[in-house]
Amino acid sequence: MKQTNVKQKYASEKQIASLLDIPIKLLRLLTKIGLPKIEKDKFIPKDCIKWYINYLRISRAVNKKELRINTNKIIEQVITTIKPK
Predict the structure, then answer these.
(1) Are 35 and 56 contacting, i.e. CB atoms less than 8 angstroms apart?
(2) Domain range summary for the chain, segments of one domain joined by +
């Protein structure tokens, strides 16, 4: 089997923001919480896409859980405020 050296292609902050369809401010925030970055203004697109997909999965799961918890709290509050006659 012949091995080939694949040169990594890098992308700028602006290119990654466009690729992920997010504002640059959000990209900078995501970078602070773990979005992979090689150095200033150098990203590997494949790694960023994988990380962002994972991030979206986790954030959706957390939001669904919070929604269930909040819904249950609201139901409990309504039940306790309704007094039978």
Answers:
(1) no
(2) 13-81
Query: CA distances (Å), 83 to each of 11, 78, 80, in order?
Result: 62, 10, 7
Q: Which two structure tokens, joined as six digits, stand for 57?
A: 């999965």
**How far is 15 from 54, CA to CA, in rounded Å?**
20
Residues 18-28 pLDDT 10s: 999 999 999 99
pLDDT tens sequence across 17-76? 999 999 999 999 999 999 999 998 899 999 999 999 988 888 887 777 776 776 666 666
Contact between 45 and 13 (Cβ < 8 Å): no
| Amino acid identity, position 26 | L
